[in-house]
Design brief:
Structural class: alpha+beta
Mean pLDDT: 90
Distance between the termini: 46 Å
Low-confidence stretches: none
Strand content: 15-25%
Largest sheet: 9 strands, mixed
Amino acid sequence: MKKLNTSPLSGMQELLPTEQAVFDQLKQNISDVYHHYGFLNIETPIIERTDILLAKAGGDTEKQIYMVSKTAESADSADQALRFDHTVPLARYVVEHNNDLAFPFQVTQINRNFRGERAQRGRFREFYQCDADIVGREKLPIAYDAKVIACIYDALRTFNLPKMLIRISNRKVLAGFLAALELSDKTAEISNIIDHAEKVPVEKSAADLLALGLNQDQVDKITSFMFTSGSYAEVEAALSDILGPRMSAVAEGLAELKEVSDILEAKGTGNFTIDFMIIRGLDYYTGTVFETMLEDYREIGSIASGGRYENLASNFTDMKFPGVGGSIGLTRLFFVLREYDLINLATEKPVDYVVLPITTNEYETAFELADKLRAEGKSVDIDLSERKLSDKFNRAGKIADFAIVIGNDEVISQKFTAKNLQTGETVEL
């Protein structure tokens, strides 16, 4: 009987070794693609100063930050907190080290982040994010937005995923649209309603807009706007129908969308669409925003997202460091693959070989063989327990692909046979 509850906290992922092996391979695949795109790897501290994180948190995120309290009287007065993403710490990092960096600075971070949101299916409080960011000094061409999106897509392509859909928008289009309707002072509230509109009936979104004091014409135009999606030509035509002579208000955002769309189309980057439902909840995004989802599993939400941030470091310095970044939610991605049987965990083993010496007399040979196989790049375990050989085979079958029995004959002949623990076939080494 347990003396204490030993299950992990709600929203924290804990894997068995065979699952962890698959998870680590997914992480490595993403890292390899980022490297091939020229991104440099860094790690920032998990714990940051609270004022750094709160400087650009915004939205619901501020309520979800885990405060770290060691000497403070309460968490509310804590001056440290766990990072909720990699982007804000990256802004601090760039300001701190800008004299030593080559710009545009292409950087990747793959590590854990923390958000105290309500744990639910496919969403976690502790989770891996695989970030790819490009930061410029003073200026950063919009073409880099397309580069990040293409990189994220190519990383996701390394998995056996169902049909992916990249949904792209631009915050400047929304800002211009609301300015044309003389609603700029309500941008935050309207953005929040649009950001949640996909999860509620359209009547609920309309009622929430009316509650802000909007008239019916404004509500109708906004609901038409947020359900607009398609190719660049299609969304441009739709906006023209909604705004008419006030179309110039969204010209800058549309021009950026067109440039990103044209590059992605020329590169042949997957299945993407412009979709004005995409807002992204974090306040630091200023232009391009995007989310990637699996079309057949929309209930899971986004598995990769990101966008352009022109002023993220403005709270830390007078220098300007515009950037664009994207992130793959690896923990959520792994959940989807496992939940929907898109990976076969049963055939994935973390160890290549288990060497099974029958008695202590074979230990020296066992260690020599293991070192030889390791030098060839194999992972090798030696079972030094005093159990029966059948029990050793049972254990080996749970963790490895092959087992190698070493008895007196093998010591003398120096010839070894590996048994495939899945098929029972044997191969000479």
